[in-house]
Write a structure and sequence with these properties.
Blueprint (H helix, E strand, L loop, with lengths): L10 H22 L1 H8 L7 H7 L1 H23 L9 H21 L13 H12 L6 H12 L5 H15 L16 H21 L5 H10 L10 H16 L1 H4 L19
Length: 274
């Protein structure tokens, strides 16, 4: 049972609806009225305010849902999950070393380099870009792992919660594949979708072992878009699928039961809700 002052399960509908409305609304406008939108607001690319708005939709809705349903005290408790860092060392190793090795291995398999080429401006620009990346994809975790994961784990085992979030996450990206000015236009959607489901499952035991940490999923997400790692497509996806299958097999006693899974959006609430 969850707590009386926690975010109610029904809020998940408003979270998901709002996330898709914001992102698909922004990106959809550029798909259906590209010339008019570009003329009036400029091209939709990294650095554009609308790009940040579309990317931050899960964070906007996640924080908004928490604030509306639990108030200031609940929001503070929710944000306190950013300070949760303790977990089994293996998960820190996976984030800090395992993910980079996946990219390196995938790149070597396809005959690529150990690291991505530095931009013409040098390493300083690459580090600047890495900093910008921290405020893009990782911000999504306020929603996906911040709100959706614990709510879903009230009703289903972590494996299914992770797969459902991954499928939702992948579908949420779909319109971006029709915008020529964003990176997804050069990718294939099906491998990307499979990758999203895989990654959402892989981060699930990390999330639960760290007792609902937002910090670790954010660092995990940051590593996935680190500009220093080489292009490893499509091998990075298949390596991650194999790695995730091994992790699920290893942690099957935790992944297929709700016992011990994090089900609180706001830690330490009192009283039960449905």
């Amino acid at each position: 049972m969850t707590k009386r002052s926690d975010v109610p399960t029904g809020a998940l509908f408003f979270f998901v609806t709002g996330v898709f409305a914001i992102t698909w609304g922004v990106v959809g406008a550029y798909i259906f009225w590209p010339d008019a939108m570009a003329t009036r607001f400029g091209s939709l690319e990294l650095g554009h305010p609308f790009y940040f708005l579309a990317t931050w939709a899960p964070a906007i809705m996640g924080i908004g849902v928490v604030a509306v349903t639990t108030g200031g005290a609940g929001l503070r408790g929710f944000l306190g999950r950013l300070l949760l860092w303790r977990c089994a060392p293996v998960w820190w190793l996976l984030i800090l070393l395992g993910i980079p090795l996946v990219y390196v291995a995938g790149s070597l398999i396809k005959g690529g380099a150990l690291m991505a080429d530095l931009p013409e401006e040098g390493a300083g620009m690459a580090f600047l870009f890495l900093g910008v990346m921290l405020f893009l994809g990782p911000m999504e975790e306020f929603g996906w792992r911040g709100v959706a994961q614990p709510i879903l784990q009230r009703h289903m085992a972590p494996i299914w919660a992770g797969m459902l979030i991954g499928a939702t996450w992948g579908l949420w990206h779909l319109p971006a594949f029709y915008i020529a000015t964003v990176v997804y236009a050069d990718w294939q959607f099906l491998p990307f979708f499979i990758g999203n489901v895989t990654l959402a499952v892989l981060v699930t035991p990390i999330f639960n072992n760290a007792r609902g940490s937002l910090l670790l999923p954010m660092l995990f997400h940051w590593q996935l878009i680190n500009p220093f790692w080489p292009d490893a497509q499509p091998w990075d996806t298949w390596i991650l699928v194999a790695l995730t299958a091994l992790v699920v097999l290893w942690k099957r006693d935790e992944m297929f039961t709700r016992q011990g899974a994090v089900a609180e959006v706001v830690p330490g609430c009192g009283g039960a809700v449905r």
